[in-house]
Write a structure and sequence with these properties.
The protein is mainly alpha-helical. It has two domains: 6-116, DNA polymerase, domain 1, CATH 1.10.150.130; 132-302, hpI Integrase, Chain A. Helices cover 54% and strands 3% of the residues. β1 (177-178) and β2 (183-186) form a beta hairpin. α11 (251-264) crosses α13. The radius of gyration is 23 Å and the shape is globular. The N and C termini lie far apart (75 Å). The relative contact order is 0.09.
Length: 314
């Protein structure tokens, strides 16, 4: 656990016992590997930690070693999730699969009972996105006054102008932004893969104004002039939406809007994939579905050969 605070990985009930149990130490090692080797986000670590904590507690109630569980025991544990949303059940299965796969990899088990667990069918959700007018209203009219307004304007313009995740925005330092080239270096992206993402003149103007009134290493600061948290970024984006009469706005909505508007404007899907930092093109393709529906509707309304009233008249 050297170099990583145990509270980051084990803020749950088994934390004090992890030193004395081989199984629980293996669980701590697995969560550490998720963070260090796979670059899992804090949200994923918390969710998997919560699910695996529940599995540990259930195993101990039954007088069993969680790391020695067989397939029927895993199914019995998951049966407690009856009535949960399919996405919640899928996440719990993924947590168990990852843990037992890790046990095999490090030589603590020869078999992997979790690989036979079947994932539920999770309905695909269309990403929330704003139209161009809504996005412009939100990013150009932030809440608060004084230097907070300058910070919020720069934050919102960069979120929409480059499609960065909230965690990536929070981790940015001043030297990651290059105003002349209008690019930002994302060094702590999901999966640990660095990338360079462009942004437009409005974002450059807003960032320059913010840099002129701020100082320090982090790009975005809170009222104590320390690094702005992910939670604070969610609040700033949400409040900007409410302030402009647009409900349900969050950083990922701006990220989805960034991708959708690029695609609608003719950008190449693989270029969008690189800018978003997606490992798989299939993840980026979700935005194609949204944009195609939007474009088909525009075509039906505006194109001479797209209106239904024109059909069959020749």
């Amino acid at each position: 656990m050297a170099g990583i605070r145990s509270s980051t990985l084990l803020p749950w009930s088994f934390m004090s016992e992890a030193r004395s149990s081989e199984s629980l130490e293996a669980l701590a090692r697995y969560l550490r590997a998720l963070e260090v080797e796979e670059g899992a986000s804090p949200h994923t670590l918390r969710a998997y930690g919560h699910d695996l904590d529940a599995f540990v507690a259930w195993s101990r109630e039954k007088g069993r070693d969680p790391a020695r569980a067989a397939l029927p025991e895993l199914r019995a544990f998951l049966a407690r999730s009856a009535g949960c949303a399919p996405a919640t059940l899928a996440r719990r299965i993924a947590a168990l699969r990852g843990f037992f796969r890790f046990l095999v990899r490090v030589g603590l088990r020869e078999d992997d009972p979790a690989e036979r667990l079947r994932m539920p069918r999770v309905p695909e959700q269309v990403p929330r996105y704003l139209d161009v007018a809504e996005a412009s209203e939100v990013v150009e009219n932030p809440t608060q006054e004084g230097w907070f307004r300058d910070r919020n304007r720069a934050l919102l313009e960069l979120a929409y102008g480059s499609g960065l995740r909230a965690s990536e925005l929070a981790a940015l330092d001043r030297d990651a932004v290059h105003l002349v080239e209008r690019v930002v270096d994302v060094r702590n992206g999901k999966g640990g893969k660095p990338r360079r993402v462009p942004f437009g003149p409005p974002a450059a103007e807003a960032i320059e104004a913010w840099l002129n009134v701020s100082s320090g290493t982090p790009l975005f600061l809170n009222r104590d002039e320390k690094r702005l948290s992910v939670r604070a970024i969610f609040r700033i984006v949400r409040d900007a939406g409410v302030n402009n009469g647009v409900s349900g706005v969050h950083p990922h909505a701006l990220r989805h809007s960034f991708a959708t508007h690029l695609l609608a404007g003719g950008a190449d899907l693989r270029a969008i994939q690189e800018m978003l930092g997606h490992a798989s093109l299939s993840t980026t393709q979700r935005y194609a579905h949204v944009s195609i529906e939007h474009l088909l509707d525009a075509h039906r309304r505006a194109h001479p050969h797209g209106r239904e009233s024109d059909l069959g008249e020749e």
